[in-house]
C-alpha cells in the first residue's frame, strides 16, 4: 500500500508562483511515469496557503487543479492583490503620519499595514470553492488541508485543519492546531505579511502571516500522519548575488537592506531549518539497530525538498520598474531598489515575473524527475 504523502508549501508572496511551476512538473512526470499523484495532506503558509487551498478544492482532479493555478498566477496582476490607487495610498499614508505624530495624545497606534489587500480577499473568494474541499474529504480524495497563521495576541502558531474527525490535534507550547472549515479569512490571515499586509481577524483574534514564529513548517503534515513529503521552498540555497555584493561593499546597511534581512528571517528561513532538522532525525533513526526499533517511536521519513536554482531577488530587481510608481517611490525612501530586492520579489505580482518563476519551477522540477517519480511510487 502506498505511503500517505504530504505537500508542504512555504510562504514568500509573489514567489508562490515558483511552487506552481514545481507542481506542473510533478503533473507531467506523473503522467509520463504512469504514477497518479496523490497528496493526502496539503499544508500551506502565506502564498503557500493560497496554493494548498486551491489544490484542496480540486483534489479530485490534480491535473486540472495545477492547470488552474498556472492560469491564475500567469495572469495575476498587482491590482488583484493590493490597492495602489492614489486615493487609497494617500489615505493609508495620512493615517500613519497622523498616528505617529499624535498617537501619544490620542492613544492610537499607526495603521496596521502599508497596503490595502481588499483585492486579494476578492480574488481568493472568487477562485475558491470551499464546498468542494469538504466534498473531496468526504469522497476520500483528500485527508486534510492545513493552513497556518500566527495569533498576534499570544504569539502562538495556529494551524487550522479541515479534515476527518479522527485526525489528531496538538498543543505543543507555542504551536497548536484548531479544527476549522477553511475559509477566505483563514487564507488571508496566513498570507498577511507583517507590516505590508493588514492583520486579519479570525473568530475573536487577529492573525498574521503563518511564517512568523513557525519554526517547524513540516510538522503539521507529520502530526496529521504523512509518511512521505514533498517540500517546496522559494529561496536559492547558495549565496545570492546581492549577498555577495553586500559583503564586497562594506557600508552601513540601509533600512531596505535591514528589512530584507528581517523578512527573509521571518518568511524564508524556517523551511530550510526544518529540512535540516528532518535530515538529522532521519540520520538518527537509521542509526538505530533494527532490534531496538520497538523501543523508540522515531522512524525515517521519506522526503524531497526542492528550492529555486535561480536568484529570485536578483530577478526581481530587473523587473522592479513594473511595480506601481508609488510603491517604487516608497521603497526608494528606504534605500536603493537593489537593497529592497527581496521586498520587491514578495510584492511583484506581475504576469511576466510570475510566469518566469513558473518556468523556473517547472525546469527545477524536471531536474528532479527521478526523485519525484521515486517519491510518487513509494
TrEMBL record:
Transmembrane intervals: none
Keywords: Hydrolase, Lipid degradation, Lipid metabolism
Cited SUPFAM superfamilies: FabD/lysophospholipase-like
The UniProt record lists the keyword Cytoplasm: no
Extent of motif GXGXXG: 11-16
Pfam families, per database record: Patatin
Domain PNPLA: 7-222
Record: active site: 46, 209
Motif (GXSXG): 44-48
Record keyword rRNA-binding present: no
InterPro entries found in the cross-reference section: Acyl_Trfase/lysoPLipase (IPR016035), NTE (IPR050301), PNPLA_dom (IPR002641)
Name by which UniProt lists this protein: Patatin-like phospholipase family protein
UniProt organism field: Bdellovibrio svalbardensis
Amino acid at each position: 500500500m502506498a505511503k500517505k504523502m504530504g505537500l508542504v508549501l512555504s510562504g514568500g508572496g509573489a514567489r508562490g508562483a515558483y511552487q506552481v511551476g514545481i507542481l506542473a512538473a510533478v503533473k507531467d512526470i506523473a503522467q509520463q511515469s504512469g504514477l497518479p499523484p496523490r497528496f493526502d495532506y496539503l499544508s500551506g503558509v502565506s502564498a503557500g496557503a493560497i496554493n494548498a487551498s486551491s489544490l484542496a478544492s480540486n483534489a479530485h482532479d490534480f491535473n486540472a487543479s495545477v492547470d488552474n493555478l498556472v492560469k491564475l498566477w500567469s495572469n495575476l496582476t498587482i491590482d488583484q492583490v493590493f490597492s495602489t490607487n492614489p486615493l487609497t495610498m494617500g489615505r493609508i499614508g495620512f493615517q500613519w503620519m497622523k498616528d505617529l505624530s499624535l498617537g501619544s495624545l490620542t492613544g492610537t497606534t499607526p495603521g496596521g499595514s502599508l497596503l490595502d489587500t481588499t483585492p486579494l480577499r476578492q480574488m481568493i473568494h472568487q477562485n475558491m470553492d470551499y464546498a468542494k474541499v469538504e466534498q473531496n474529504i468526504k469522497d476520500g480524495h483528500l485527508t486534510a488541508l492545513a493552513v497556518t497563521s500566527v495569533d498576534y495576541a499570544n504569539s502562538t502558531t495556529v494551524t487550522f485543519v479541515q479534515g476527518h474527525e479522527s485526525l489528531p490535534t496538538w498543543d505543543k507550547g507555542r504551536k497548536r492546531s484548531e479544527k476549522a472549515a477553511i475559509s477566505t479569512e483563514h487564507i488571508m490571515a496566513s498570507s498577511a505579511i507583517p507590516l505590508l499586509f493588514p492583520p486579519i481577524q479570525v473568530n475573536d483574534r487577529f492573525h498574521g502571516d503563518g511564517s512568523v514564529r513557525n519554526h517547524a513548517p513540516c510538522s503539521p503534515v507529520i502530526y496529521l500522519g504523512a509518511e512521505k513529503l514533498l517540500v517546496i521552498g522559494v529561496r536559492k540555497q547558495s549565496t545570492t548575488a546581492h549577498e555577495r555584493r553586500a559583503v564586497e561593499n562594506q557600508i552601513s546597511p540601509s533600512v531596505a537592506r535591514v528589512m530584507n534581512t528581517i523578512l527573509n528571517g521571518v518568511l524564508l528561513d524556517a523551511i530550510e531549518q526544518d529540512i535540516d532538522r528532518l535530515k538529522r532525525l532521519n540520520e538518527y533513526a537509521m542509526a538505530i539497530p533494527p532490534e531496538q526499533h520497538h523501543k523508540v517511536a522515531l522512524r525515517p521519513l521519506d522526503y524531497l525538498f526542492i528550492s529555486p536554482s535561480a536568484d529570485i531577488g536578483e530577478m526581481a530587481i530587473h523587473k522592479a520598474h513594473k511595480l506601481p510608481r508609488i510603491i517604487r517611490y516608497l521603497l526608494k525612501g528606504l534605500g536603493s531598489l537593489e537593497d529592497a530586492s527581496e521586498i520587491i520579489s514578495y510584492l511583484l505580482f506581475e504576469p511576466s515575473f510570475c510566469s518566469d518563476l513558473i518556468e523556473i519551477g517547472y525546469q527545477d522540477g524536471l531536474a528532479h524527475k527521478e526523485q519525484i517519480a521515486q517519491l510518487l511510487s513509494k
